[in-house]
Design brief:
single chain, 183 residues, alpha+beta, 2 domains, three-stranded mixed sheet, two-stranded antiparallel ribbon
Length: 183
């Protein structure tokens, strides 16, 4: 083999290696659209989109591009079954992760309104950094959806839908007077 042929072969090999390296680098890049669709369950995402719209309607905004929203079979905390858990920085990847149990008491046997109540509370904790709030209104009802001493599934329902506006405003931390129904 001549030195010209060897140099030519080396150039082709170098060029091929460079192309392969560049293709590999671009292939490893993360596409946020792919991330979002891959890590948000469609059944749950309907509620996340609704929550985002409620925040937006009240002048706020959320970055949902790094939110993982998934079902898992069962969740246990200190030996007790719980319906959900969330992580602000799941596995140090910069993603908020919300896990929802499909267990009957948590999801499967619940109607859409109960699911909304439950998920909006979880979104408040995971996406708005809201903490537990067990304060009461003058009539004894919870002052916040962030209560852990209440039945979050029935914080409001079809027969008490007027409460929805108050609880969402409180969750998003909008100043408001105590409503008549809470006196």
């Amino acid at each position: 083999m001549t030195s010209t042929t060897t140099r030519s072969t080396n150039r082709v090999f170098s060029l091929l290696c460079t192309v392969l390296i560049l293709v590999s680098l671009f292939a490893c890049g993360e596409d946020i659209d792919d991330f979002t669709s891959a890590f948000q369950n469609e059944e749950l995402k309907v509620h996340l989109d609704s929550f985002d719209a409620e925040v937006s309607n009240r002048g706020g905004s959320l970055d949902l591009s790094r939110v993982e929203l998934v079902f898992i079979a069962d969740i246990f905390f200190n030996g007790q079954r719980v319906c959900s858990r969330h992580f602000e920085n799941y596995e140090n990847q910069g993603n908020a992760r919300i896990e929802i149990s499909r267990h009957d008491d948590c999801w499967e046997s619940r109607n859409d309104q109960q699911r909304e109540n439950f998920l909006f509370r979880e979104f408040g904790a995971a996406l708005l950094d809201r903490l537990t709030n067990n304060t009461k209104l003058p009539n004894g009802l919870p002052a916040s959806m962030m209560c852990n001493d209440c039945d979050i599934f029935s914080i409001y329902d079809e027969s008490t839908i007027v409460r929805r506006e108050y609880y969402l405003n409180e969750l998003i931390q909008i100043e408001q007077d105590i409503p008549e129904w809470g006196r």
